[in-house]
């Protein structure tokens, strides 16, 4: 598999992970004040998932431009 295809696969995987994290954060917010102590941990996981996704998208775009 080419580097381009690997990056594309990685972006899709990270999009899924970020979407799951977003929903976990959303569900936690809907249930407040229940489990309020988990806010920081869930928010941090969500932040990191989206940061990874953003970096992968930028790398993929750069790879796509160089094709």
From TrEMBL:
Pfam families: Rop-like (PF05082). Gene3D superfamilies: Helix hairpin bin. Keywords: Nitrogen fixation, Plasmid. Belongs to the UPF0437 family. This is CCE_0567 family metalloprotein.
């Amino acid at each position: 598999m080419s580097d381009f295809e690997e990056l594309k696969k990685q972006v899709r995987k990270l999009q899924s992970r970020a979407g799951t994290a977003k929903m976990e954060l959303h569900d936690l917010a809907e249930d407040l004040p229940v489990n309020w102590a988990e806010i920081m941990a869930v928010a941090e996981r969500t932040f990191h998932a989206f940061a990874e996704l953003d970096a992968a998208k930028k790398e993929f775009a750069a790879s796509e431009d160089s094709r």
